[in-house]
Amino acid sequence: MRRIPDDFVELHASRLLLLILGASEKTRKGVHSINSRVKIAKLDFFLRYPSYLEKALKILISEGKLKGDTKVSADSLHSIDPSMIRYHYGPWDKKYYNILNFLVAYNLISVKKNERGVDTFSLTKEGEEKAKILCTRENYKEIKDLSAIIGTIFGDWKGTTIKNFIYQHFPELINLPLGTKIKP
Fold first, then answer.
1. CA dihedral (170, 175, 179, 182) positive or negative
2. What CA–CA distances, in Å, run from 36 to 3, 21, 120, 160?
3. What does the pLDDT look like over 9-35, one tens digit per residue?
4. Rounded mean pLDDT of 128-141?
5. Whether the Cβ atoms of residue 32 and residue 148 lie closer than 8 Å to each other
6. Dihedral (Cα; 151, 49, 139, 131), 10-degree rounding
7. Number of structural domains, the chain?
8. Do the beta carbons of residue 122 and residue 21 sit within 8 Å?
9. Cα dist from 62 to 14, 49, 68, 77, 175, whole Å
10. Is residue 4 part of a domain?
11. Which of 155, 35, 151, 41 is nearest to 89 (CA)?
């Protein structure tokens, strides 16, 4: 997959739609949701930097927390959009606010605060339909497949747990000065 230009909001929005569809579990009401912007950012990190996803898989397999038959395609090991920066809570992208607002404005996701005040990002019916259409397109296959792998591995994890995993296993990211671009 070629890299996504920073100013092409629609492509970033498509990536996040596929991530929410593939990396979330349906709620009791049948809605695909991810709790917290932190979790979206960390899942998106593994989507955008598949080489780190591959390292995470190896770590989890070696720790006995994952079966050894889960693999990332060699075709996916190049970065999809290597423009995340080191921020206070690990990998982050300043574009999230605009992209998430774009998705809300076009009624593709809804955002609600839960009882703890944490935002829950859910696909709307229209958002799920659009995401499923994207899944049928060849140029989104890599994102769809990686999102499903990420969901299988990290879907049940809390955002803070994923952040702590990144801090523990990828000190090269955490040792970067704040605001530094993360390299693939």
1. negative
2. 26, 15, 6, 9
3. 888 999 999 999 999 877 767 889 999
4. 95
5. no
6. 30
7. 1
8. no
9. 33, 21, 9, 20, 24
10. no
11. 41
Cα angle vertex 125, ends 120, 129, to 5°? 115
Q: Which residue has the higher pLDDT, 74 or 81?
A: 81
Cβ-in-10-Å burial (0-12, 13-18, 19+) of 35 comes to middle
pLDDT at 14: 95
What pTM was computed for the model? 0.89
Q: Could you tell me if residue 38 is inside a domain? A: yes
Per this entry, what is the length of the chain? 184
The verdict on residue 184 lying in a domain is no
| pLDDT classification of 74: cutoffs 50, 70, 90 | low
Element (H, E) at 20: helix 9-23
- CB-neighbour burial class of residue 181 (10 A; exposed 0-12, middle 13-18, buried 19+): exposed
pLDDT at res. 116: 85
169 inside domain: yes
Residue span of the structural domain in which 158 resides: 9-174
